[in-house]
Prior knowledge:
Number of strands: 17
Radius of gyration: 49 Å
Strand content: 15-25%
CATH superfamily of the domain at 1-130 and 448-536: P-loop containing nucleotide triphosphate hydrolases
Structural class: alpha+beta
Low-confidence stretches: none
Distance between the termini: 21 Å
Largest sheet: 6 strands, antiparallel
Mean pLDDT: 88
Shape: elongated
Amino acid sequence: MLLNLCIRNYALIDELSIDFTSGLNVLTGETGAGKSIIIDAINLIIGERASTDFIRTGKQNASVEALFSYNNLLVDDILREYGVEPEDNKTLIISRELSLQGRSICRANGKMVTVSALKRIGNLLIDIHGQHQHQSLLDSKNHIRLLDLYGYDEISVLKKNVSSLYNKYRNLCKELESLKTKHKDFEKQQDRLRFEVNEIEQAQLKPDEETQLEEEKKILENAEKISNVLEEAYNLLYEGYQTPSIIDNLNKTVDAFEDIKDYYQILTVVLESLTNMLYELEDISTTIRKLKDSIDFDAGKLNVINSRLEMINRIKSKYNKSIPELLTYKEEAAAQLDKALDLDEKINDLNCQLANIKTELIKNAVELSDKRKKVAADLEESISKELKDLNMKNVKFKADITVENDDFGIEINNKKTNITEDGIDKIEFLISTNPGEPLKPLTKIISGGESSRIMLALKSIIARVDNISCLIFDEIDSGIGGRTAQVVGEKLYNISRKHQVLCVTHSPQIASLGDTHFLITKHTESGETFTRVYNIDSENRVSELARMLGGAEITKNTIVHAKEMLRMAKKVK
């Protein structure tokens, strides 16, 4: 609830602090004393439009600060969204400062926030009904919420089902759309990918093939030279040519050393080395002979190798990749082609899921709509009864439920229907205030006083489930008196058992039922006018009620009447 309101340099107020209480808080005072100024100040706190005209004459700025206690997790969510950490004790200080330069500074728990943040938070904390703009009743977007609150026991489970199914439906639609887009993009690439995979596969590339082919090419291109060198080497080492070969000479040397080794022992080591060298040279000679015999220049084979290398270079150049990279690319492209089958399966699976969810969503949404129609009929009957109690006997009230066509919506009963997480219904409260007049939207037909009384009728019915904790009724008694004013007061008191209620009133019947009574007065001192607020009780309260009963002159009769009102109010309580 609203615990404290502190106002500085605002209109007729220089400095004012009001401690509000739970239950019914009534604010009274003579016309022009400044009751509306306090409501205007509260409007600033909840994000309504600011004007430099509100700044007290001669001052550079004005400020309003409010202390709330609350028990709504949505408030915590909004605070965190703007970087404000909620207090553990669930209190919130909202302040707003206006300057003559036109600046408006908003703070929540000391941290600067935007005006839109105040409006969002204010919508959860306070509902003002009367001559001012911040009225949930006048926003048709709230009508479905009010109807559903009224029929909470019958509607809540179905509404949760519809909300859950709708969110699943929307998520599946998004996922399906994403997969279809991927599949469409993939289809554009499919032919190219298949061609590339086939082209690389037909090339039958091997990781080391290019190196081997280049080596074979060099050998074939230089076959004659290689053969001549090998021939000459073999002759020098083994065959000899006009002169003995190296191996022949080495054999003679070994044989000669064998003859003298018994007389010259020092040659033993040298002889052993020469013998090993002889064996090794013979092996080398054999290898050279085999290599020489293997050299066979084949022009046809060279052409095949050149053609193969040309093909390899062409495909490498086309893809700008090496052979290992081409082989990897082929595997990746083949894997992408395989994904097409997976996408088809996923799309088919999602289509099945979507069809099932859609069937359930339609079923629950239609059932919810049917329930709402029954609840709407009950609400209309209850509102009519409440309005009669409030002396609005000729007023007709209707909770109009319609379904909007939407070319992109869900097909229900062969019509494309708009659907949201609230279902398929669009709900707007309609009213006719005079006999013979057609029903019109509530926002277009009613005056402030009528609005307050109709909101009072609604709040009287749904107070047990409404989660806005502080309700402000500004001059709800406009145009009424006597028994009707008494009924209005009793209804306000009943609502205040579960909500904090602030009521600006000229009606002594309503004022007498207040749990806390604030008197607003206007004084002139040294040529300046000031608004003051007093928490009155006992004799002061009797005097104020007597003034409200009798006007400017307070008589013994009005005093007696005022005391009787307070005594009767205690009985009502």
